[in-house]
Recover the amino acids of this structure.
């Protein structure tokens, strides 16, 4: 088990190096320092201004080791990223690490409640619909799921803001404050919308998993020994469905830190999602490069966590 | 004395291509306490459906259309769901065909057997576990104490079937339904499991409905045999009679098609044709399309039960004519 985890982490390191290389090509070779400078200074910038901007922002050195072995961008890129020394924003010079730190808390305050509530709600609803499989309740459930999946999240957001924020005045339309006394008022609506917008797809997925498990032979055995339907669902079906559930869920955990691009943007929540959108709009390439790198780390971490969690729920999975 | 298990004119149907097809059609059987009745038939003849019908576990969209199942004289069909649940696994237990998939893969086998006990008896978890170890020893699982903590995938097919038997016996049922208990196992293991079933049956004097397609197993274990074709009984007789003096053309054909039924070097006989699709069952006798002795009445109506000897009956017009009907 330990050997497996170590080897898996080793692969992870390899993937990180690959990701960094792809990032370098994207942000230095495809979008060249000249492009970045011109975007920062505007189309009419003079050649001299561009050279000055590149020198000031550390973009003036050669890119590849074969151009200058000791002083090149590729080495600096790897060196600074791996030490989490992210430097300063191209646009306003604030340290990128600080902006990331400041963005994590607001992101987590909406993503964690969404994650927990939505997992509980969708698994329960999935079990409920699967329990009534092949009845009108099941058909109605699946219909609602598909309906929910088919509606764009934008409609949930704008509709929610209009209905609950503007007409009913239950919660503010947008805004954010980390102060615990008022925070709940601000996160209630985005959390509700986050849970609702993803519920259709999740419920339908869990229903499929549960219904498939109810057709298995061991379920028939459980019934034959006198277990009731509810017990069959909770003790046998749910337990055997954990692998597909985990596959879907654990991968998403790291993305809790990433926040939600759309929800944060619409609700004015100063999290990492907003930071990403702002960086794109402001041509802040350095910040964007850091964000893509950090998100990749999260994703790789999530994959490793998923593999390890399999072994925890299913004794057949042996990690070696 | 009432029979341990009585099945009276049980009919089970499934919807196929817009119509309901009787996969079990008015089957009547009786099993006395301490008796082993073998139910023999080809794949798809409805054997397993009869078993599931007795437990009222016919999978949807199938359903029991008519008939009664009596356990020690008590009709199971009108029972409420909770009442039925109390009987399942307690007075009426079942061993399934596929030990590989019939146990939950993520729960230890000990826990699964203990669950069967805890569902029906007010005992502590610890007592249930102790009983489970005893049962494992009884069904010949070596190193029983440690094996209760094993997961199904850590056990061989034979051991898994022993676990299934231990589970079925855990509440000392008086009627046991064994649905092809050895089909998925190696031949050597088959013999051990049959031996075990016979021993346990003698010890507990329970009644067994043994479902099989293998006359070898019938010969080993059965007291009486009922032969099923396309959901209908064709012949019922004590073992010796059925194996040596079968009367129904289908039973005769089955036995002739068995290796060992002819002199070495001769070709085995086969029954011409195949089991008809459920949607194209003939109107009269369901075996009429493949029967060598078919004549007019066979196409017109369903043959009734014909008593040939005190415990021997066949459902066949040709046999009836022979008998001077």
């Amino acid at each position: 088990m330990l050997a497996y985890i170590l080897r898996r982490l080793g692969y992870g390191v390899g993937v990180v190096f690959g990701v960094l290389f792809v990032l370098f090509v994207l942000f230095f070779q495809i979008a060249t320092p000249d492009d970045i400078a011109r975007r920062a200074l505007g189309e009419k910038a003079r050649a001299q201004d561009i050279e000055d901007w590149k020198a000031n922002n550390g973009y003036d050195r050669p890119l590849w080791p074969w151009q200058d072995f000791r002083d090149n961008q590729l080495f600096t890129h790897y060196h600074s990223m791996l030490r989490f020394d992210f430097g300063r924003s191209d646009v306003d010079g604030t340290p990128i690490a600080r902006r990331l730190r400041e963005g994590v808390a607001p992101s987590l305050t909406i993503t964690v409640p969404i994650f927990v509530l939505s997992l509980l709600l969708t698994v329960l609803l999935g079990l409920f619909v699967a329990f009534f499989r092949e009845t009108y309740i099941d058909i109605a459930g699946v219909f609602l799921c598909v309906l929910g999946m088919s509606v764009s999240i934008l409609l949930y957001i704008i509709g929610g803001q209009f209905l609950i924020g503007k007409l009913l005045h239950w919660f503010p339309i947008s805004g954010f404050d980390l102060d615990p006394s008022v925070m709940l008022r601000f996160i209630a609506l985005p959390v509700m919308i986050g849970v609702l917008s993803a519920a259709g797809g999740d419920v339908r997925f869990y229903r499929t998993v549960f219904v498939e498990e109810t057709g298995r032979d061991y379920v028939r055995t459980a019934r034959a020994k006198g277990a009731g339907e509810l017990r069959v669902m909770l003790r046998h079906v749910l337990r055997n469905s954990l692998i597909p559930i985990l596959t879907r869920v654990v991968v998403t955990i790291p993305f809790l830190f990433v926040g939600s691009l759309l929800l944060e943007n619409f609700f004015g929540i100063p999290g990492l999602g907003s930071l990403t959108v702002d960086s794109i709009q402001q041509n802040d390439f350095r910040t964007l490069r850091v964000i893509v790198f950090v998100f990749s780390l999260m994703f790789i971490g999530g994959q490793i966590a998923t593999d390890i969690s399999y072994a925890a729920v299913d004794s057949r999975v042996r990690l070696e | 004395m009432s029979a341990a298990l009585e099945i009276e004119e049980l009919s089970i149907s499934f919807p196929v291509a817009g119509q309901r097809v009787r996969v079990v059609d008015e089957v009547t059987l009786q099993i006395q306490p301490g008796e082993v009745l073998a139910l023999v038939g080809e794949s798809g003849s409805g054997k397993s459906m009869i078993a599931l019908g007795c437990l009222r576990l016919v999978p949807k969209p199938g359903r029991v259309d008519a008939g009664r199942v009596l356990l020690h004289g008590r009709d199971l069909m009108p029972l409420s769901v909770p009442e039925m649940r109390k009987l399942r696994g307690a007075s009426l237990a079942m061993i399934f065909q596929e030990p590989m998939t019939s146990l939950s893969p993520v729960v230890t086998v000990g826990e699964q057997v203990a669950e069967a006990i805890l569902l029906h008896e007010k005992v502590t978890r610890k007592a249930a576990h102790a009983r489970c170890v005893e049962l494992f020893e009884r069904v010949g699982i070596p190193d029983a104490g440690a094996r209760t903590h094993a997961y199904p995938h850590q056990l061989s097919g034979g051991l898994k079937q022993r676990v299934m038997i231990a589970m079925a016996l855990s509440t000392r049922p008086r009627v046991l339904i064994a649905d092809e208990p050895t089909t998925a196992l190696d031949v050597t293991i088959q013999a051990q499991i049959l031996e075990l079933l016979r021993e346990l049956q003698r010890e507990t004097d329970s009644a067994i409905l043994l479902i099989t397609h293998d006359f070898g197993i019938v010969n080993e274990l059965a007291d009486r045999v009922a032969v099923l074709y396309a959901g209908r009984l064709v012949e019922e007789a004590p073992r010796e009679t059925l194996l040596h003096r079968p009367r129904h053309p289908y039973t005769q054909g089955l036995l002739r098609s068995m290796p060992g039924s002819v002199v070495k070097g001769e070709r085995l006989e086969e029954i011409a044709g195949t089991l008809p699709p459920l949607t194209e069952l003939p109107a009269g006798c369901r075996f009429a399309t493949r029967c060598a002795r078919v004549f007019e009445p066979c196409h017109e109506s369903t043959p009734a039960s014909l008593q040939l000897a005190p415990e021997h009956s066949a459902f066949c017009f040709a046999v009836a004519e022979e008998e001077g009907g």
Summary: The radius of gyration of chain B is 21 Å. Chain B touches chain A at residues 55, 57, 59-61, 81-82, 85-90, 93-94, 96, 98, 101-107, 115-116, 119-120, 151, 153-154, 164, 167 (CB under 8 Å).
